[in-house]
Protein: Alanine racemase
Amino acid sequence: MSIAIPAEDPRHLPNRAVVDLGAITHNTRQIAGSLAEQTALMAVVKADAYGHGMLGAARAALAGGATWLGAAHPASALALSRAGIDVPIFTWLYDPRTARELLPAMISASIEISVGSRRMLELVSEAARESDLRARVHLKIDTGMGRGGALPEHVLELGVRTREDENLNLVATWTHLSSADALGEDTTDRQIDIFDSICEDLTEEVGPIALQHVANTAATLSRRDLHRDLVRTGIGLYGYAPVPTDLDLRPAMSLTSRIAMVKEVGAGQSVGYGRIHTAATATRLGLIPVGYADGLDRAASGAVSVLVRTRAGDQFAPQVGRISMDQIVVDLGPDSAAREEDEVIIFGAPDALDAPAAGAPEITGPRLDPPTAEDWARAAGTIPYEILTSLSVRVPREVRSPAAGDAA
Ligand SMILES: Cc1ncc(COP(=O)(O)O)c(C=O)c1O
Structure:
């Protein structure tokens, strides 16, 4: 096996994805504090914790009151367990080949496993028998999402088989909501009606099942009645709310860069591939060395602003022209105080940038809140989830941990 070595020394790159673990702890605490009394919080840390770094994010969420962890891939679940994190870990997305290879290790590590088909049930049962252990199984019911999980007409049979199998311990039923963020629609209610009715039949058939879980962040924030025994929250922990909320959620990731060049141009100067932007008047353009190869969405071209931290204070600068592979151009305006090397927040949290170096001139002007992944998502016609998980390996991650006792 070969291990990739980064081709570029991160010290020589101006861009950073600054991850604030204190914000994840804070957000988890906010959400945990809003749950129904009997409800536990599963921190969803799939996709490298939505790009924030799985192990750090998992520990930060546990510090904020999460008591479960959830990861789509078994390999992530195993990595959490092997890192010595000793809480229930749930995983739900595996193919038969991966399952045959990883199930024995997963069952030995007490990882809780979703089952949504006869085939998966057999694989889990076989691996448990070979390991001489009982696997903890969560039965997944497809109530309308149409992805994984057993269709309603197959659930009873699957439930009976699971309960009768001495290698398996049926501990939960669960489903995933397709439209929990669509507050005006009745889709969620229809899914829940199906779920509740099947769970009732199942209980009659096989006896009580300890846990139910259905809610993602949107349902956690908007439907207390859906908290059940466990909520599976992801995006909220990272500071984004798919539905309106009174909770104080703070973006945990900031993408920062520095101005590489400032150029005074006259009216009529066009910018970038395809010349989709032309300066209407004389202005100052700022070149920022971050582009779609770093994870910016090219579809957002010309529709977002960045925050530039100049000596005279913060200013917004609209991004102009097409987003290129390695760079973007922003219109600083004719009177901007921005200079080369000034720091830029592409999206994120107000305190993302470094404290000024010793001897650096003091910033005297106003401080502004930077754009967010939500702003980028709106501009690109996507969702903050995709903005956060799209940052490429080319962007060095800089993880900030709160000082002890500091993560209130
Ligand atoms: C099965 C499952 N549960 C929970 C979540 C968390 O969703 P959210 O990030 O919207 O809270 C996801 C993420 O998409 C998921 O796939």
In short: The chain has a mean pLDDT of 94. The radius of gyration is 24 Å.
